[in-house]
Design brief:
The chain is α+β, with helices and mostly antiparallel strands. The protein has helices spanning 10-19, 30-54, 82-85, 88-97, 158-161, and strands at residues 21-24, 58-59, 63-64, 68-72, 102-112, 120-123, 137-142, 153-156, 170-172, 177-179, 188-189, 197-201, 205-208, 217-225, 242-246, 249-250. The protein has a single domain, classed as q2cbj1_9rhob like domain (Jelly Rolls). Strands 1, 4, 5, 7, 12, 14, 15 and 16 form an eight-stranded antiparallel beta sheet that branches. The radius of gyration is 17 Å and the shape is globular.
Amino acid sequence: MTKTATLITEAQRQQFFQEGYFILEKALADEQLQLLRDTCQHFIDEMNAEMDRLGVTVLRGINHKNNRYFIPTFLNGSNLLGSVIFSELMADINRATLGDTSYLFLDQYVVKAPEKGLKFSWHQDSGYLGYEHKPYLTCWCALDDMNEENGTIYVLPYSRAGTKEIIPHETDNAINDKVGYFGDDPGIPVIVPAGSIAVFSSTLLHRSGFNTTTRFRRAWITQYSAEPIYKKGTEEILYSAEPFLKDGQRIRTS
C-alpha cells in the first residue's frame, strides 16, 4: 500500500506544482543537522588538499578555494550521509512532489566562506544539464541560520518568472556560472533557521548572494528524480540513479 506524505501539507504540495517550491522550517532532526555539520569541514579539507596538490585555486569550474564550494558526497563514494539522504523525512518530501517512485540523483555541500563567499547567478538546476529531461527535485537544507547578509538563496516563483519550462542559459565566463534570468525581479529571500529545507523543482529559478558575515554559510543539497537521468545521447547514468522509493515505500534507508 502506498504511504502518503505525513509532513507536507496539501497547501505546500499545491504551491510546489503552482509556484515551484515550498519551505519546511526546522524540518531536520537535531541529530541529522549535527551529522551534516560534522561532515562538512571534512569534505572542505579534502577539496582544499586536492587544490593544493594540483596547484590551483579553482576546481571543476565552480569551486573557488576559500570562497565557494560545491562538494558531492555520495557520488564520490561516501555514504556518511545515507541516513539523511534515505530518511523518512526525505521520503515524505519525495512522495509529495515526485510521486511513489524516486531515485537519488545527487547530493552536495554548498559552502560560502566568511566575508568573501561568491554569489551564484540566477539559474534553474535543469539549466546546468542543457538538454531535455524530466524535471527533478532539489532539497536545499540550511545548516546555519540563513539571511540576506550571509548569502541565502532567493527564489523566483513560476508566476513571477513567467514560465515553468526549462529555459536556455548563458555562461558567465568570469565565474563559470550559467545564467537563466536577466530581469529586475530580486526574488524572495529564504530567511530560515538552521535545519530548515527549501524544497523546489529543478525548473525553479533561484540565486544566492554574497556572504558578508564573519562566519561560513553552509548548506547541503540532495536531489532526487522520478526516473533515471542519462547523459545526453547515451544510456550512461548522469551522476546517480540510486533507487529510493518504489510503490511509495523506501527500498533503501541508509
